[in-house]
Amino acid sequence: MKSHFTRCLVAAALITGTVNVANAENYPDPRQTLNIIVPFGSGGVSDAIARILAEKFKAVWGTSAVVQNKPGGEFMVGAAALANAKKDGYTMGIITMGLVQNQIIKPQQPVNPFKAFSPIGMIAKTPLVLVVSKNSPYKTFKELQQVSAKNPGSLQFSSCCTAMWFSIEMLKHNAGLAGQHIPYKGSAPSVTAVASGETAYTVDTPLATQPFLGKGGKLHALAVLSRQRLPSLPDVPDLGEVGVSGKWELNTWYALAFPANTPVAIIDKANAALNKILAMPDVQQQFAHFVIQPDPMTPAQVSKQMHSDYDWYSDLIKQNHLHLF
Fold this sequence. Notes:
Helix content: 40-55%
Shape: globular
Radius of gyration: 22 Å
CATH architecture of the largest domain: 3-Layer(aba) Sandwich
């Protein structure tokens, strides 16, 4: 009986393996629809990226492509939908550094990004920007540092999500800033809170902040949180220029992933297509509009980046005795 049962299991495994190989050989099938899951609502960077990719995958593969916005639960609604999707290569999704940061802050979150996904490739990265109200008394990074030292209880900062909260705490403890956290549900209300004076400052992506910057805008940028200036914000100093030493910087990235255990042959084909798309001049031009930089990688390099970020932020929490839980 046991021998017969074992033979049945082996046969089933062989059949499954054969089906997977056959699917991989025929992948992508133009008759199939490609679904791209976005764990955020429409209108943000992840949504914009997904729609650009959907158009280009359709052109490269000849498949129809649909973007599915599944916001909620600090990435978890969309992440769960991707993790539980079929492993046939026709459901992929946007994952971000915030999902890795959440794993540190909330290790019991329903979806572990290191176990639930098979990375396809890196899409892009973008630095973050520190902004205050145009009417703020703090006109420079140095002035914000000074009030942080003299009267730390007077400051409040807003954040759109756990990822940005995490980044601001890193900035506080490594650049001498202070402030009480006021959470908001999304970049728009967080940035608006700063513009209206409800909070003193926030950190967010250039896409979220840029509409409020410049002549007539309601925000003033104190620093780009990288080691070089942004072409789109040429007058905003970088971390080194405002006196913050070291090599560390704060940015966020956007990657593409399949559910875990998707066949390697499918992943490799998707990675090749993604990197081909990222090299297209019109895609690079569209990315520049959203102030994101194409950053093609292999699946292994994405996995390494995820683990590196996890270790880096975990170490910073321990070194600075942060309590984010």
